[in-house]
Structure prediction request, 330 residues.
Amino acid sequence: MSTKRSPLVTRARLRPLALAPVLALAAGAAAAGAGHDSAMHQGTWVTLKGENAVAPLGDHTKWPAGKGMTYVSATPDGKRVFATSAAEDTIYAYDAHSGRLLARIPVGKTPKGIKVDRKGRYAIAADEGAGTITVIDVASLKPVKTIAVGPMPHNSVLSPDNRTLYVTLQGGRSVAVVDMERLEKVGELPAGTAPHNVDISPDGVRLFVANNASMDLTVIDIEAGRVIKRIPLSPPHYGVDVTPDGRYVLVTGIAGKVVTVIDARTLEVVKRIEVGQGPHGVRASADGRRAYVAVTGPGKVAVIDLERLEVSGWLEPGKTPFWVAVRGNT
Prediction:
């Protein structure tokens, strides 16, 4: 999540050497939903768990990846994309312009969340099976440090000043705090039971943590180090995104059918938007006008109009879309 608005990347063009394998996976891919200009969706990527691939939205290509693809993140400039193969203990790194695979980066056991920091220096993998995070240098595409953080780290978010990383510890009831200058764990914050995904307010004051076992969203006052509200949610497991303008918190639940829209200031639920069975990944566009929701059941991405708070269209990138990355909204 970011407060900066960034221009969308241009339409991806494939390099000749990468064309054959990409086209092979692209067979049968559906175009954007009726009424949608594909250009508006560029700079957005989704993992396809059912196809072992990553797909750029607003395009008709798919990038071959590994087994058990889960999370995806992009650099702030939109030039590189990182995606997680939980089954291979590997991060796949791509050139976002061409779709060319740049590297397969080994990390800790069962990596889940991947997050590129706000300066584009590091990509951080949450190694759920190892109790660690792996810090990857974006320029060299090599791991630079492994940091023990606690039981079952699942995903993370950076503070707006990029100095602090917050990591959900799904094996407990807390969020690990990592100093990104020293690359060391420096503490923990309380959350709910089995904290899963997390985002932060644009001012860096509050964390929003979706918890699988307690089935709620815990709102954490970072400075005070305490939970200030618990908001009941639909069945887990969850995706969560704070819109870049700080207006809404969007929470999905893969066992349900809705996206819960919460006013980020009043902390009240303002609407539940039905999108079909199995919503998980959710990310707002950098301009805050729409949100993308990966809906695993029907294999579609719902596009939500954030002014009207309703589904305005559908994209069909491939089988079992799972997580979404948007340039300008880390």
